[in-house]
C-alpha cells in the first residue's frame, strides 16, 4: 500500500479491532458516532485507565518502559495511544535503535492490554501489529513482534508481525478509510458475535442484514402489512 494520508485523514487505530470484528460495528461507532456500554467495555476501560499513566517511565536494568505513548502512521492513516512500550537494550546488529539521552541501542516492543482472554479471531493481533507499524515509521526501526497481555489469566501472548499479518493490517486500514470516505454503514451480517456486541440494539442485525427483506422482518414482528 503506497498511499500516504494527511493528518486530517487520520482514523483512530483502536478502531481496526472493531473493523476486523465487524465492519458495521466500526461504522456505527466511527461514522455514525454511536456507542453503548456493556460490562465488557466498562471493564476494558478500567483496565486501560490503570495502565495509562503518561508520567510513568521506568528503567530496570536493560529494560526501559514508557506508558500512554501517542503513535501515528501516515502510511496506514491511523493514530492512537499505545498502552505500554518496552525498550530492551541490545546490540547495534540486533535491530536496535538509538534513543535521545540514552546510551546504547534499544529494541522496541509494543504491549497491548486486554481485559479478557485470547480471541478465536485475529482482531487483537491486527491492532497490535498496527501499533508496531506505527512505531516502525516513527522510530525508523524494524519491529518483529509485540505482546498481548490478557487480564483474565494475567499472561502475555507473543505475536509475530509476519508478512501475512502486516498485509491484513494494511488491507483493513485501506477498507476503513474507504468506508469512512463513503460515509455508508455496511449492512449487518448476523452471527453468534452479535449477542456479545454492545451495539446490538442500535445495529438491529435482524432488520438490516442483506439476506432478509425489511418487509419480511416487519411482517414477522407485527403481522402482515395491509395492502
Shape: globular
Q: How many H/I helical runs?
A: 8
Oligomer designation: single chain
Tell me the strand percentage band: 15-25%
User: What structural class is derived from the secondary structure elements?
Assistant: alpha/beta
User: What is the total domain count?
Assistant: 2
Main beta sheet: 7 strands, mixed
Q: Please give the CATH architecture of the largest domain.
A: Alpha-Beta Complex
| Poorly predicted ranges | 36-52
Rg from C-alpha positions? Answer: 20 Å
CATH fold-level assignment of the largest domain? Lambda Exonuclease, Chain A
**What's the helical proportion of residues?**
25-40%
For the residues shown, what is the average pLDDT?
A: 81
Amino acid at each position: 500500500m503506497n498511499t500516504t494520508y494527511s493528518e486530517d485523514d487520520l482514523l483512530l487505530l483502536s478502531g481496526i479491532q472493531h473493523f476486523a470484528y465487524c465492519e458495521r460495528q466500526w461504522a456505527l461507532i466511527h461514522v455514525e458516532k454511536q456507542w453503548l456500554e456493556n460490562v465488557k467495555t466498562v471493564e476494558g476501560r478500567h483496565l486501560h485507565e490503570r495502565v495509562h499513566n503518561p508520567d510513568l517511565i521506568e528503567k530496570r536494568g536493560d529494560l526501559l518502559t514508557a506508558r500512554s505513548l501517542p503513535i501515528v502512521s501516515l502510511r496506514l492513516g491511523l493514530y492512537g495511544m499505545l498502552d505500554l512500550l518496552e525498550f530492551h537494550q541490545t546490540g547495534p546488529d540486533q535491530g536496535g535503535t538509538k534513543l535521545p539521552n540514552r546510551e546504547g541501542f534499544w529494541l522496541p516492543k509494543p504491549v497491548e492490554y486486554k481485559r479478557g482472554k485470547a480471541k478465536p479471531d485475529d482482531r487483537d493481533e491486527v491492532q497490535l501489529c498496527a501499533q508496531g507499524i506505527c512505531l516502525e515509521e516513527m522510530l525508523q526501526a524494524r519491529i518483529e513482534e509485540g505482546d498481548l497481555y490478557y487480564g483474565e489469566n494475567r499472561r502475555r501472548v507473543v505475536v509475530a508481525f509476519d508478512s501475512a499479518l502486516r498485509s491484513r493490517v494494511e488491507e483493513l486500514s485501506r477498507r476503513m478509510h474507504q468506508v469512512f470516505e463513503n460515509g455508508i454503514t455496511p449492512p449487518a451480517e448476523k452471527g453468534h458475535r452479535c449477542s456479545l456486541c454492545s451495539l446490538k440494539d442500535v445495529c438491529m442485525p435482524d432488520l438490516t442484514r442483506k439476506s432478509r427483506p425489511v418487509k419480511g422482518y416487519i411482517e414477522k414482528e407485527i403481522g402482515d402489512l395491509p395492502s
